[in-house]
Design goal:
By secondary structure, this protein is mostly beta strands. It has two helices and 30 strands. Helix content is 5%, strand content 46%. The strands form eight sheets. A four-stranded antiparallel β-sheet has the order 3-2-1-30, with no helix packed on it. A four-stranded antiparallel β-sheet has the order 4-5-6-7, with no helix packed on it.
């Protein structure tokens, strides 16, 4: 198993690893393999992104300002920066687990960030206005703590890929409540039409055992109401669009170059389209300027036109932010500007804000090994 994970480390894969090896080896392997979005990340997160799928924040007003929030995995920190003044206003939040965690994603709502802590079975609650950890929520042992989504201002779901469940948590009380069985390897969420869909990667020993699926949950009762079988393997990230569709990014099998994109009708619980050609282990997925943008440590950033159903920039002609043919994740702010995470897990890295021609127009310093990025409106 250790040789297998070392191989994944050397090729910049993102498959999450759990083991009983020493903490330093476990952290190194986890953090350099965070980008297959078994989180997440992956929700990244993660994932979300792991998690752009969370319900939206309040609309901008004179009393609100926009911030970007970056998860720095190796440091176990968050970098919070002001979108309008990113070089002048940046803060760092220590996640306070003493090196035991491996955060790779977050979700945000109402000025609060929820950060699952990976191999450490917990999620941390961060007040984005004060830049402080306010609570640590204990999760079931062996959870994997990957991927999250807010249901209300006070409640959220956290994916437990190590247990095949999701945990219902209260961020104000700092407590985990109901645990719900949802599949083999849940690692992220997406919301559409009042239903929360759990992204089940269908992994065993960190390898796909079949195509992935989405599991539908009623956000009020947490009952499973349906499922969507996908054609691709290892689904890792998803976004819902205004026309009622869900696009699911399938990372595929390591080294196989079989990344793909599924199109889902959430009302009918049906996959209505499947597109191949998304390269080796694509990771995060976000919508900017009408295009679906995909990142990977293997090729950088590519763009898919969901209307034309074709590549705007494919793996044969990827964007290479900062001159690097590799990207750790993506995010988009309220002005529809694309941000890319520069992949550096040895020293402090940076967020690269891209213009319409995908040229870098701003570089924002962040911590070591940025894994996920999200944006939110906060007071003041």
């Amino acid at each position: 198993m250790r040789d297998f994970r070392s191989q994944r480390l050397n090729t910049h894969t993102r498959t999450l690893e759990y083991s009983t090896v020493t903490r330093s080896i476990r952290r190194t392997l986890w953090l350099s393999s965070i980008f297959t979005w078994i989180v997440v990340l992956a929700t990244a997160l993660a994932l979300a992104a792991c998690d752009a799928s969370s319900p939206t924040d309040p609309p901008p007003s004179e009393d609100l300002r926009e911030v970007g929030v970056v998860v720095n995995s190796v440091e176990e920190t968050l970098t919070i920066f002001d979108v309008d003044h990113p070089l002048d206003d940046r803060r760092t939040v220590e996640l306070q687990l003493g090196g035991d965690g491996s955060p790779v994603g977050l979700s945000i709502r109402a000025g609060v960030a929820l950060v699952p802590m990976g191999v450490f079975p917990a999620a941390q609650v961060v007040d984005l206005e004060t830049a402080q950890v306010t609570r640590t929520i204990a999760l079931p042992e062996g959870s994997g703590a990957t991927g999250s989504i807010f249901l209300t201002d006070s409640t959220a779901l956290v994916a437990n890929p190590g247990r095949g469940t999701v945990s219902h948590v209260n961020v104000r009380e700092g407590a985990a409540q109901q645990e719900v069985e949802v599949g083999l390897y849940p690692q992220g969420f997406v919301e559409a039409g009042g239903t929360v869909f759990v992204i089940d990667a269908q992994l065993e020993q960190f390898q796909p055992v079949g195509p992935g699926r989405l599991v539908a949950l009623d956000p009020g009762t947490l009952e499973v109401t349906g499922e969507v079988m996908l054609s691709g393997e290892n689904p890792s990230s998803a976004v819902a669009t205004d026309d009622g569709r869900i696009f699911v990014l399938n990372g595929g099998r390591w080294g196989a170059g079989n990344g793909s994109l599924s199109v889902v009708d959430p009302a009918q619980f049906e996959e209505t389209g499947h597109h191949a050609g998304f390269g080796d282990l694509p990771g995060s997925l976000t919508l900017a300027s009408g295009l679906l943008h995909v990142s990977s440590w293997s090729f950088g950033v590519i763009a898919w036109d969901p209307v034309a159903q074709s590549f705007h920039r494919g793996p044969d002609n990827p964007v290479e932010p900062g001159g690097m043919p590799s990207t750790a994740g993506l995010g988009v702010d309220s002005e529809d500007r694309l941000h890319a995470l520069f992949p550096n897990c040895e020293s402090p890295s940076r967020v690269l804000r891209l213009d319409e021609g995908y040229e870098v127009e701003e570089e924002i310093p962040v911590g070591i090994c940025p894994a996920a990025l999200s944006f939110a409106m906060v007071e003041g």
